[in-house]
Amino acid sequence: MVRISRGFFERYTPRVARELLGWRLVRVLDGERLSGIIVEAEAYRGAGDPASHAYRGVTKRNEIMFGQAGRAYVYFTMGMHYCLNITTEPEGTAAAVLIRALEPKEGVETMKRNRGVNDLRRLTAGPGNLTRALMVDRRLNGEDLCSSRVLFLERGGTLQHTGVSTRVGVSAGAGLRWRFFAKGSPWVLKGRPSVRAQNP
DNA sequence: TAATGGATGTTCT
DNA sequence: GAACATCCATTAT
Q: Using the CA of A57, which nucleotide's C1' is the nearest one?
């Protein structure tokens, strides 16, 4: 298996997000491999990105975003869900890539059990759903994807058809086209349109 | 097919 | 106390 190097993550975040499409995210749970191909990802940066948690500087929640690249940034949102990000750019520069959807590959039965659904299409579509399927929660915050044995990336296949759009569910910073996805993938949902446009 | 609102709790002002 | 990088069922079109 080919592991991803830290240098990969230490670059301009939108580029990292785009190039992460096609990589396999692996979660090892009780010795079993649960995995899927990344088919949707979004870039978030600190300075100049009002949609980012890091826009207003360091807080207890977002401090991981300011640290070393290649680590998991896991946060709890909307009272119900966890979201998984991978930190990017050199230490001191706040940035991360939000993993929004996977195409399930290994451990499908376990993931179905974790999610409480049978529908393969909905298993790992959406950031809150994929963390539930992979049992990712705040205990994995700060986990180093470059060295971890329970959460890491392996080279998958190159995706042929990819698309770009604005990010899902953000109001501030809605103009940035920092969402990248595999075109036509059943696991890429359209997402809820943002409530307000930024500059009408 | 699109829009709406409830569940739910952490974070920051 | 308001806002929130969500999901899903329900209702309207």
A: B12
